[in-house]
TrEMBL record:
It comes from Okeanomitos corallinicola TIOX110. InterPro entries: CobW-likC_sf, CobW-like_C, CobW/HypB/UreG_nucleotide-bd, P-loop_NTPase, Zinc-reg_GTPase_activator. Pfam families: cobW (PF02492), CobW_C (PF07683). Residues 245-333 form the CobW C-terminal domain. Keywords: Chaperone, Hydrolase, Nucleotide-binding. This is GTP-binding protein. It catalyses: GTP + H2O = GDP + phosphate + H(+). CDD domains: CobW-like. Belongs to the SIMIBI class G3E GTPase family. ZNG1 subfamily.
Amino acid sequence: MTQLTLPTTNPVMEIPKQGMPVTIITGFLGSGKTTLLNQILQNKQDLKVAVLVNEFGDINIDSQLLVTVDQDMVELSNGCICCTINDGLVDAVYRILEREEKIDYLVIETTGVADPLPIVLTFLGTELKDLTTLDSIITVVDTETFNEDHFESDAALQQITYGDMILLNKTDLVTPEKIKSVENFIYDVKSAARILHTQYGQVPLPLILSVNLTPENEYISNHIEENHEHHHHDHHSPHLENDGFISISFQADRPFNVHKFETFLTEKMPQTVFRSKGILWFSDSELRHIFQLSGPRYSLHADEWPTPPKNQIVFIGKNLEKEEIYTNLNNCLLC
Ligand SMILES: Nc1nc2c(ncn2[C@@H]2O[C@H](COP(=O)(O)OP(=O)(O)OP(=O)(O)O)[C@@H](O)[C@H]2O)c(=O)[nH]1
């Protein structure tokens, strides 16, 4: 999918009146969910879009990187919304519905380790069912790092299984052969998958919003009615215990020495860190540095501080030793 411009008449604007439409963006760690959300926010035209960002770490880095100038449109929830099923999610959606200003559309970004099924069931199995319409579940895939091993993660498999639309993102980093092989993995899991190819989440919004793809009735008859029969209302998902990902957050009111931080990255950071993101303060710079590490790559991008400077960084991976990471990062701070 390479067509990047919006048609002049934008069907996204024709939003159904009954129930606020909801799109859920899911996808594995670092696949490009926040990047896609920013594309949506930049191209939404007059649509009033509220976003609900759920982060795995204790610090909300993603919400600080959203392009929206209107922070009122962002609701946050930390931890994993699919695990604490799910008063937190219901409350956050209520807060959006109760706003004076009418919201046309809700987009939810899940964490990279989220199983989307409990989230869907929260919408369809609670009072939210009458107030919202689940439009689609979009699964973002990092085409470069995706391989068969991803399915050792239950969450990654569930994300593909329940994705109504699958965006093979980061196609700029791979060969056509790699794209084909990822498509084949996906078709093995889901033979009728709808797949789009994207770079930096660029996709015409009419292809992904108001597309009415989530088969609500199927979920209700397969999961909700079945659960009622078994008097089992808890949609708790054991995926985190299975996947073993943990997140470690570090904050400091002092700047890093850039050279020490680089040494930390190249020599001391555990190999088992799969994803890291941060807003960094270096002693020799007046700018903030957005740090992104996803699989084998990392980047630092400088821009102005909108707030007083401080260091915030999150690491997500397996078997991480918090004390060791803290000691190493404290050693990078300027005395
Ligand atoms: N080369 C390339 N980089 C991309 C693309 N899309 C996103 N990225 C980069 O990948 C990194 C992770 O992107 P995010 O959008 O933060 O990923 P995410 O899925 O929100 O990450 P988590 O929420 O932490 O799981 C960032 O550095 C992005 O700039 C793409 O199509 N090509």
